[in-house]
Design brief:
With 295 residues, the protein is α/β, with parallel strands linked by helices. The chain has two domains: 185 residues, Rossmann fold (3-Layer(aba) Sandwich), CATH 3.40.50; 104 residues, UDP-galactose 4-epimerase, domain 1 (Alpha-Beta Complex). The protein has twelve helices and 14 strands. A seven-stranded parallel β-sheet has the order 3-2-1-4-5-7-11, with helices on both faces. The chain has a three-stranded mixed β-sheet with strand order 8-10-12. Helix 1 crosses helix 7.
Length: 295
């Protein structure tokens, strides 16, 4: 199968490309630089020049593929409206291109804010609609195409997709601990984050295509339903030899920077339906087992 991947050299995307190539698929990745293109070619994938703002390039790459995996995101947490707009535009262009083709369209989404105060399941619908909402309401927009002849599959990733080389949320927490000479958690640290190892997340995406998940499927890439943030802070503190401290919610932004508002959230989820549908069984290390890779 010819698979077009946006975000193909990103943290999750590069692992997804490896999975797809190992499974015998022909992969073309959206490459925004010569270095990205070279990295893709070195793996045996094709490079399609362009970035998330190159809607014509995304359209062309999608039209030439048998399946599309959309993982690219600007991750501009200082100006989230920029990321949200780009995300929505890309999803709309891909959806329009695939309309009526019944080709798989795997769309990355997140598990945060789905079920405040509860544990999110695949049956929970995203509360975000429209361009002004988080991620531009792209999950619900993508699902609209399931009624237009597109085999839309939503892959909701845990707030931490961890592993050696990660530069995401956990890496930011480690950097904040080093900067502040203490490893912090917000309040009592009882709020929890779901977690998944990068290799398990990538395998989930590949299985969604290989096992032909039906249109409208929602998948949860969450190997652990909820790791207490205090336990994360304690693991970081132990690894760095730093004291572990409670940070008042009002001081979270000052201590953690832009990540403070996220680290105070409870973002838990189960993946029972995903495991049953795909036969997905995570094998990677847990988040706490993986923390030494960040020091």
């Amino acid at each position: 199968m010819r698979v077009f991947v946006t975000g193909a050299t990103g943290w999750i995307g590069s692992a997804v490309v490896d999975q797809l190539l190992d499974a015998g698929h022909e992969v073309t990745g959206l490459a925004r630089s010569d270095a990205s293109a070279a990295a893709l070619r070195a793996k045996g994938a094709r490079a399609h020049p362009g970035d998330l703002d190159d809607l014509d390039g995304i359209r062309a790459g999608s039209a030439a593929a048998d399946a599309v995996v959309h993982l690219a995101n600007k991750h501009d947490f200082v100006h989230p409206e920029v990321s949200d707009r780009a995300e929505r535009d890309a999803v709309q262009v891909i959806g329009d291109t695939l309309e009526g083709s019944h080709r798989p369209f795997v769309v990355a989404s997140g598990l945060g804010l789905l079920s405040p105060g509860g544990v999110a399941t695949e049956a929970d619908r995203s509360p975000f609609h429209g361009p002004e909402s988080p991620r531009g309401g792209s999950e619900n927009l993508a699902l609209e195409y399931a009624d237009k002849g597109v085999n839309t599959i939503i892959a909701r990733f845990a707030p931490t997709v961890h592993g050696a080389g990660d530069h995401g949320f956990v890496a930011v927490l480690v950097a904040a601990a080093r900067s502040r000479s203490s490893s912090g958690y917000v309040g009592d640290g009882a709020n929890r984050w779901s977690a998944v190892h990068r290799t398990d997340a990538a395998r989930l995406v590949r299985l969604a295509i290989d096992k032909e998940a039906p249109a409208g499927t929602i998948l949860h890439a969450a190997a652990e339903s909820g790791v207490p943030t205090r336990a994360i802070a304690e693991g970081i503190g132990q690894g760095l030899g730093l004291p572990v401290v409670s940070v008042a919610e009002d001081d979270a932004a000052a201590h953690f920077g832009w990540l403070g508002r996220f680290f105070a959230l409870d973002m838990t989820a189960t993946a029972d339906t995903t495991r049953a549908l795909l036969g997905w069984s995570p094998t990677g290390p847990t988040l706490l087992e993986d923390l030494p890779n960040y020091f």
